[in-house]
Amino acid sequence: MRGVGQDDKFVNDEYTEIKNEVEKETEMQEGNSWLDCFSLKHKALYRTLMAVLLQMGQQLTGANYFFYYGATIFAPVELVSNKEDNSYIAQIILAWMTIWLIVFSTAGVCGQDDGNPGNVSDKSIAILMICSACFFILGFASTWGPGVWSSVAELAVPQLRAKQMALATMSNWTWNFNLAFFTSPITDDIHFYYGYVFVGCVVAFFFIVFFFLYETANLDLETVQHMFMDSSVKPWNSANWVPSGRESRSDLKHDIEHDQIESDIDVAANDQYQHTNEG
To answer: Where would you find this protein in the cell (predicted)?
Structure first.
């Protein structure tokens, strides 16, 4: 990939580092069963439940609700042809999403067709619902959607990361299936009131994030483990936790970035050296 031979020092060093990391991770995984994910050691149970809850919350924010209802909403404004049957940022975003879910659901309830409650008869109401859906999806797709995956990875106990990630992913897909399977019969009965169910879920997860999710910003995985083991740290004040020997989290972030820059410089220098020798 770098245009050097397989006996090159850089290649061998890189290979050795990767091999050692894989062996270390394999050793860490040995002797750990699925039941260890629910033990009290290293707060494994707490961290497993949080990972499962976060992935459940990703589905229960209501993002798929908009996708299920999309064609119904867009039809009145003729965007779809009728000719064929065809921890702080997360809290802020959850509040943002709650607002637009309320707007969407209320507009749907107020503007639904009396003869066909599942459809919106008023074009202006439909436009308002489309705008609220777009703003909601903007908040979800830029934060809560992808952010949950990184949060789950940081929450995991190193020795149990693969198993805890698997349980969290199972939670995500289980609730995805539940929404896909039950949305149709539910909306047939309560129509746009269904949106208020997700409003309640988003509000609930606002408090779950505040009271139970640890703030891991500017921390590496090793210091995250130290934070979880510090009994004096609570989720709601974890943003103020600083690793031992550091004045602030920014110091750690600066050192990590500095080490990465030095590593990149070494790689570039090695590439240049090889290129010069070949010339």
So the answer is: Membrane
